[in-house]
Amino acid sequence: xxxxxxxxxxxxxxxxxxxxxxxxxxxxxxxxxxxxxxxxxxxxxxxxxxxxxxxxxxxxxxxxxxxxxxxxxxxxxxxxxxxxxxxxxxxxxxxxxxxxxxxxxxxxxxxxxxxxxxxxxxxxxxxxxxxxxxxxxxxxxxxxxxxxxxxxxxxxxxxxxxxxxxxxxxxxxxxxxxxxxxxxxxxxxxxxxxxxxxxxxxxxxxxxxxxxxxxxxxxxxxxxxxxxxxxxxxxxxxxxxxxxxxxxxxxxxxxxxxxxxxxxxxxxxxxxxxxxxxxxxxxxxx
Length: 286
Prior knowledge:
By secondary structure, this protein is an alpha+beta fold. 22% of the residues lie in helices and 31% in strands.
């Protein structure tokens, strides 16, 4: 009879790990080696698939999906208090826990010169080099891609005042949640651009977006979260899912923000609000 332990004496054959597993393992090693006592407001955990063990994909799934949202506000500490109280957000270093897509809070001007208060988006792309060429070809600006712990990144603008990033990331570990799956998640994005037709061409070329008429401007078909685009001062307005919009509106005003009335829309209840630093956002109850 052969020894059942003979199999353990077989030569070791190395295997290339799955990219998503490698990204998670790298994150665990980085966090283990980092002195967390030295982490301040300008430091955040690397953007990774940190919640894949909870089966939530936070950084987009498809080309053209939002991979990350930077919420730049003059007073990051006040922002943590406001959004924690209104939306129930909790925080690890500079990043918001649990929320989909992944959100990071930054004190705007201290982090990037010339950054105004509000949200800046990053989108997932399949081939960042091709996407960078497309941005430049449509009159935008794009840095050469640089390698980050989470993948490749390029800092861009549409050439008319709208900043954004492109990310080429490891393959997602699972499917994406629906828009606004849990309270505090992003339920919709409103992209405001200086020239709507020009922006439609740029994002169609770079992200493969297609459009259909919206109430104001156009609705983008396909990407997650759901996105609309309209003409106006360049910027992004975030919409948040809540489970009780009346209670959420009360929390907004109690925390020093302002809110308009709750309106009934075809898709549910909506209130237009602003935080205590003047940044506009919407609340949605579906």
